[in-house]
Amino acid sequence: MKISVVVPTFREELNIKNHYDETIKILKKIKKIYPKYSEYEYLVIDNSSDDKTVDEVLSFRENDPNVKLIVNNVNYGPVLSPFTGLTKSTGDLVLLIAADLQEPPGLLINFIEAIEEKYDAAIGVKSESKENFLLWRIRGCYYYVLKTFGLIKITSRYSGFGLYKKELIEEFKDNSLEEPSLRILLPMKTSNFKQVFYKHLERKHGNSSYNIYGYTKEALKTIIRNSTRIPHIAAKISIIFIFFTILLIPITIVLKLLFWQSLGPGIATIIILLLLINSGILLFFSLILDRQGQILSRLKPVRKKIKHKIIYD
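Predicted structure:
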């Protein structure tokens, strides 16, 4: 049986060789424990890095024919490229893991134990992290928002790191998501997965290609493209505003009668009109968005097709 190790990269020239070496050590250890897993492939899918990541992969590929490399023609982001790597893999089990060694390759042993227990997948869940404290908290708030909008059903500190059966990967291919995030996709396809907790390590070399702006951009894309609750929430807020405004009308009239001299002429009327107009506009747009959501729900999104400029297999 074969284990595929799928490693998405972008500007990881300082980490990829160490990651490869660590992974090979673990694969050799696994072969001793579970002799049936005698084959492997180390598949790097690169998001058009502008450093020497590709050169580094090609250098150790010369001595290992099990190393495969796919180089995308452009940067397709942190969702679509890893997902494509999963679909291009050929193993009976497929490990998706980052190249920066923040996700420990050694956890593969725990993942295989879960597969041997008849789970369809074993996923890595961060119990703690050595990353920037602010980013850790922001991620937590983001995951909370995703849960609020009904986009994720599993624990929040999961980013795709995990081991998946080939049959489950085939199930992943059949989806209607424009950007198939595994946070959303996994619980759609199976509930038979095991969570394995781990400490998210510090980057050994280089800086992450993502900053707060990048994470915010991806977060908004995920919410907007996959959530149908936003129009409903907007409609509820607009109805609350309208109800509140209607209540203000008799209150404002009473206050005007009691404090005739204190309230300037027309101020109360202007306030009420502004509230009515704003809540009406919000309701109007929420109805449009709701109708748009109904239309889009009947259509299958056209997923962006990834193009590659180099493939070494």
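Summary: The first strand starts at residue 2 and ends at 9.
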